[in-house]
C-alpha cells in the first residue's frame, strides 16, 4: 500500500507562486503514475497534472504554462510548482498514485487559497 501526504499549501496573492509536495511511503513508487487533482468549493474534483514513471507529463488546459509537475524517485516525492496563481486556482489539492490505469491511492489534500 502507498501512503501519500501533501504539504506546501497556503494563502497567496494572485500572481504569486506556491510549491506543493507529496511524500510517498510504501509501494514501488518509481513504477506509479503520480497525479495532482483539485476540488474547488462547490465543484467536482478535477485533474490538474500527472507524471508517468518515465517522466512524461500531462496538464489540464487551465494550468498549462503556469504549473509544472516533477518527481524525485529516490526521495519518493512529487512536486507541483504553481506560478502565476489566480483566484480560480483556489481549491484543495490532492496527490494520487496509479499503479495501472486507475488512481487508487490518495492523500488527504492541502488547501491552496489565492486572494485577488
Explain the overall architecture.
With 116 residues, the protein is mainly β. It is 0% helix and 55% strand. The chain has no helices and eleven strands. The strands form two sheets. Strands 2, 4, 5, 6, 9, 10 and 11 form a seven-stranded mixed sheet that branches. A hairpin with a 5-residue loop joins strand 4 and strand 5. The mean pLDDT is 96.
Mind sketching the topology for me?
Blueprint: E1 3-7, E2 10-13, E3 18-25, E4 33-39, E5 45-51, E6 57-59, E7 67-72, E8 77-82, E9 91-98, E10 103-106, E11 110-115
Parallel strand pairs: 2-11
Antiparallel strand pairs: 1-3, 3-8, 4-5, 4-9, 5-6, 7-8, 9-10, 9-11
Beta-strand content: over 45%
Radius of gyration: 13 Å
**Uncertain stretches of 5 or more adjacent residues:** none
Class based on secondary structure composition and strand pairing: mainly beta
Can you give the mean pLDDT?
96
State the total count of DSSP E strands. Answer: 11
**How many alpha or pi helices?**
0
Largest sheet: 7 strands, mixed
**Span between termini:** 40 Å
H/E element sequence: EEEEEEEEEEE
Provide the helix percentage: under 10%
List the main descriptive attributes of the protein structure presented here.
0% helix, mainly beta, 4-stranded antiparallel beta sheet, single chain, 7-stranded mixed beta sheet, 116 residues, globular
Amino acid at each position: 500500500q502507498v501512503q501519500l501526504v501533501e504539504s506546501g499549501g497556503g494563502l497567496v496573492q494572485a500572481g504569486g507562486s506556491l510549491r506543493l509536495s507529496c511524500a510517498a511511503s510504501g509501494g514501488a513508487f518509481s513504477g506509479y503514475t503520480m497525479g495532482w487533482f483539485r476540488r474547488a468549493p462547490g465543484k467536482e474534483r478535477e485533474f490538474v497534472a500527472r507524471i508517468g514513471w518515465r517522466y512524461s507529463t500531462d496538464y489540464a488546459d487551465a494550468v498549462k504554462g503556469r504549473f509544472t509537475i516533477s518527481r524525485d524517485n529516490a526521495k519518493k516525492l512529487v512536486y507541483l510548482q504553481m506560478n502565476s496563481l489566480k483566484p480560480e486556482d483556489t481549491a484543495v489539492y490532492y496527490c494520487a498514485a496509479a499503479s495501472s490505469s486507475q488512481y487508487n491511492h490518495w492523500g488527504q489534500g492541502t488547501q491552496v487559497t489565492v486572494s485577488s
